[in-house]
Design goal:
mainly alpha
């Protein structure tokens, strides 16, 4: 029988999942309950995996196991970069002029690590949504970074590398989340231009239907509830557009 007490909300998956203390317990449960889960939900777990966010083991129906950094790992790395930079900035006040270039040099090193994460994600054909977001963040950080003459060459090399990664990212197929976000942008443009209300309504309906059919999809940038809220707000704007036109 499917347990309910061991279910918790997983911040990594953005939904409730069963949590197991060990891989053995997770796989034992999968072995004896897969058929029942399949009959109830239409899909069954095929492997276990360790979740860094929950400090335990989950089950998943996805067969592939890609070498992609998790959202929790990305957050931890970003936090480490910020704290490292703060520590270096504090040391700069006491170590004199000799270490003035240290913060910018460390910032470049942090960006190199982020670019390596992006490269790995592209190699494994990861989520287009999260890869595009990472590239945008890295590009913005690099653009705002002030460096000395000695480090300008390194900065230019990273800019070229990011530009190439961005071109590769554009060739990735849209994942489910990216598809919904594209629909939302199209609807927003139609509303801004006071387009046909019936067309806009149909586009909103199709986007909502697609979103509700995304059961079990791993969303990277927004939660399912947040995307649904965006579409409901667009529906309200559509109604207001009709009322203004009628008036």
């Amino acid at each position: 029988m499917k347990p309910t007490k061991s279910r918790i909300f997983c911040r990594e998956a953005q939904r409730s999942k069963m949590l197991f203390e060990s891989q053995k317990k997770a796989e034992n449960f999968m072995q004896y309950n897969s058929k029942e889960i399949l009959s109830e939900s239409g899909y069954a777990p095929v492997r276990s995996y360790h979740c860094i966010a929950c400090a335990g083991w989950h089950l998943t129906s996805r067969r592939e196991e890609l070498d992609l950094p998790s959202k929790t790992e990305l957050v931890l790395e970003a936090y480490k970069e910020v704290t490292d930079e703060k520590d270096k900035a504090k040391g700069l006040c006491t170590n004199g002029r000799q270490e003035k270039d240290t913060p910018s040099a460390n910032a470049l090193q942090g960006l190199r690590k982020k670019i390596e994460l992006i490269r790995r994600s592209l190699k494994n054909k990861g989520s287009k949504t999260i890869i595009t977001k990472l590239i945008e963040e890295a590009s913005k950080s690099l653009e705002n970074l002030e460096v000395t003459t000695q480090l300008k060459k390194s900065k230019r090399e990273l800019e070229v590398h990011l530009s190439r990664l961005e071109s590769r990212a554009m060739l990735l197929p849209d994942d489910e989340e990216a598809g919904i976000l594209t629909q939302i942008r199209v609807i927003e443009r139609l509303l801004d231009n006071k387009g046909n209300r019936i067309l806009i309504r149909n586009l909103i309906y199709e986007a909502l239907r697609g979103l509700r059919n995304m059961d079990g999809a791993m969303l990277q940038q927004y939660s399912k509830k947040a995307l649904e809220e965006m579409l409901k707000n667009l529906a309200l704007r559509c109604d207001q557009l009709h009322n203004n036109t009628s008036g």
